[in-house]
Amino acid sequence: MNTSVAIQILPMLEDDQKVVAVVDKAIEYIQSTGVSYDVGAFETTIEGDYDQLMEIVKNITKIAAEAGAPQVMTYVKIDYKSKGKVLGIHEKTDKYQH
C-alpha cells in the first residue's frame, strides 16, 4: 500500500436527503472496488495502489452526477510514497476510536 487518499464530494443540492443519497451512491462505488476504506463525517479515506486509487478519484465525481447531482464539488488529498508504504488508516486513527 503506497497511497492513501481522502475524498470529499459535495453534491450541489438543496435537499439534505438528496445530498445523503448521492453520497451514499459514491460510497457504494468505493465499496464495490474492494479497496480498504474508512467513512468519516466529512470525507472518505481509501488506501491501496496509486493507480487503482486514481481510477476511483477519476470516476467518483461522475458517479455522484449519475446519482442525481447536477453539480459536484470534489476535494482530494493524496499521500503517496514511491518506495515503502504510507501509514494506514488504522495506524493513524485506532487510538482515537471509542
TrEMBL record:
Any single Pfam family the record assigns to this protein: Thiamine_BP
UniProt xrefs under Gene3D superfamilies: 3.30.70.930
Coiled coil: none
Domain Thiamine-binding protein: 5-97
Superkingdom, natural source: Bacteria
GO cellular component labels: cytosol
Membership in a protein family: Belongs to the UPF0045 family.
Protein name: Thiamine-binding protein domain-containing protein
